[in-house]
Design brief:
The protein is α+β, with helices and mostly antiparallel strands and about 90 residues long. It has two helices and four strands.
Length: about 90
C-alpha cells in the first residue's frame, strides 16, 4: 500500500511541476514581469476595496492562458474573496 502512495505522490508532483512550467511559459510570452503583476494586483485590490471589504490574505491574481479557440493568449485571472459590500 505504501508503494502505491509513493507513485501517486510522484504523479501529483509531476502535475504540479507541469503546471508551474506552463505558468512560466505564459509569463515569458506575455512579457509581464512579476513586479508589474504585483503592481496590477495592488491597483485591482485598491479599486475593489473602495466598494467592498475584501479578504486580502486570500487574494489570488495570476496569469493563465485563454482557450485554444481564443488563440491561447495570456489572461489575467483574479479570485478576490469579498467579505461585504460597502454602502456609499
Amino acid at each position: 500500500m505504501d508503494l502505491f502512495k509513493l507513485f501517486s505522490n510522484r504523479s501529483a508532483s509531476k502535475e504540479v511541476a507541469k503546471d508551474r512550467l506552463k505558468l512560466i511559459l505564459i509569463h515569458d510570452r506575455s512579457d509581464l514581469s512579476p513586479e508589474l503583476l504585483e503592481l496590477i494586483k495592488g491597483e485591482i485590490m485598491k479599486v475593489i476595496s473602495t466598494y467592498a471589504e475584501i479578504d486580502a490574505s486570500e487574494v489570488d491574481i495570476r496569469l493563465t492562458k485563454t482557450d485554444e479557440s481564443e488563440g491561447n493568449a495570456p489572461a489575467l485571472v483574479a479570485s478576490i474573496p469579498i467579505r461585504r459590500i460597502k454602502n456609499k
